[in-house]
Write a structure and sequence with these properties.
three-stranded antiparallel β-sheet; disordered N terminus
């Protein structure tokens, strides 16, 4: 096989000739003014590649890219969701503010310190003490507590005195405690008379939009100077309970509150002492509180 066939002129460029030792045609090509066969051309080119690979600097290793250590990213501070302030009960209030206390000397507040010494105890009366208790428990409210107790009055007469007062005072609540004078004067018949009058007063007060609280009588000391029928007073109180239940009105059970403690009754055996009037006032407040007190809740300030 021919590797190189000699030089030829540029005018013979791109001319192909066939050279063969065994009569096999071999394609040839002019390169750089010389004629090469395809095989010899491949050998020459391969040598050039090897020569180029062996010259110059050694191959450079691939440059490694230094990795930058990761810096921990601090998340932005999170604001906790607002907490709902706890609810706290606010000061209680009373749904009623005008109270009419109606009755005889036990409403007026008569005190009998000795059989020969009696007097009006208006500041010691249960209406006056009730006003103090209401103001103390509900300081944000204004109350009117009218003391309409009339000494020696019968319930049979009081029923006619009540109606004008209902019109002028316009009470939210009427507390009725009367009847002992009817009983002491008339005996057993006085129980019926007093009960009839009390029921009439109850209806009159209710008809004018007032809530009614019927009161039983304090226990009476037998053989007291002002007592003629202590047992009848006890029977009358039982009838008042039944009347309150039947008419579905409030009950101020004074007899139950005293619980037979005659130390709460004055020297005459009839009228309560100052401590007794205080117990009546507290019992009246308890009934009002259970039925008319309201407590709102507010959010505590964070």
């Amino acid at each position: 096989m021919w590797q190189e066939t000699g030089e030829m002129s540029a005018s013979d460029d791109m001319r192909r000739e066939t050279w063969a030792l065994d009569s096999t045609p071999v394609p040839c090509r002019w390169v750089g003014g010389r004629l090469y066969s395809r095989r010899s051309l491949a050998v020459v080119l391969g040598g050039l590649v090897l020569a180029m690979g062996g010259c110059g600097d050694s191959p450079t290793k691939p440059t490694s890219i230094a990795s930058t250590p990761s810096v921990p990213v601090t998340p932005p501070p999170t604001t906790p969701p607002p907490t709902t302030p706890p609810t706290v009960p606010s000061s209680p209030t009373m749904k009623v503010s005008r109270i009419l206390c109606f009755g005889d000397s036990m409403t007026a507040g008569t005190l009998v310190l000795s059989p020969s010494l009696a007097g009006s105890g208006a500041p010691e009366s249960y209406p006056a003490r009730l006003l103090g208790l209401l103001t103390q428990r509900y300081p944000s409210q204004q109350f009117v507590v009218e003391n309409e107790g009339k000494p020696r009055e019968w319930a049979d007469d009081g029923q006619y005195r009540l109606v004008p007062l209902l019109q002028s005072v316009r009470p939210d609540v009427v507390i009725l405690m009367e009847g002992v004078n009817d009983i002491n004067a008339l005996g057993a018949g006085g129980v019926t008379v007093a009960l009839t009058a009390m029921e009439n007063m109850l209806r009159d007060a209710r008809a004018r939009g007032a809530q009614v609280m019927l009161a039983t009588l304090p226990p009476q000391r037998p053989n007291g100077a002002s007592i003629t029928a202590a047992a009848l007073a006890k029977d009358y109180s039982a009838q008042i309970r039944r009347l309150a239940d039947r008419q579905r009105v409030l009950l101020l059970d004074v007899e139950l509150v005293f619980n037979g403690d005659l130390r709460l009754i004055g020297a005459d055996g009839l009228h309560p002492t100052a401590e007794g009037y205080q117990k009546i006032a507290q019992a009246a407040l308890d009934v009002l509180r259970v039925n008319f007190e309201q407590t709102a809740t507010t959010r505590a300030t964070p």
